[in-house]
Write a structure and sequence with these properties.
Number of strands: 13
Distance between the termini: 91 Å
Number of helices: 0
Structural class: mainly beta
CATH topology of the largest domain: Immunoglobulin-like
CATH architecture of the largest domain: Sandwich
Shape: rod-shaped
Amino acid sequence: MTVNTQPTVTPTAPTEGTTYTAPAGITLTANATDSDGNIARVDFYNGATLIGSATAAPYTFAWTNVPAGTYALTAQATDNLGAIIASAAVNVTVNDPLVGAGVYCIYADQLNTPRAITDSSKQKPRSTPIASRAHQHSVRSGRLSSAP
């Protein structure tokens, strides 16, 4: 009777806590070995969803157009005799391209011409955009001031 030893698999990229900006391109890579045979394939998962596979080393998959969100990525190796092992999850975040950008538009002059201003604190924008409140304020010397 032959005993099939499970393969091993270790994700090498991305690393835990990596952040991207949407739409992201994330290259997933893993090292996989099998002490009593060979690796038939490595599957890459986002949670329980299969997102790609590789059948030859280096085990790599390019995941493209990844939307904003938080993802738990794993690699699952299958050896030539069907033994399967999954890696621990690697958590990554894909941020919305506008969150934290710190750029807002307001209508700053008598012609209602949009002007870009920045917020160096890079805090998330208010839930009510400045532009929607512009009629309540006037701009003098580059600063918002209350209307008289």
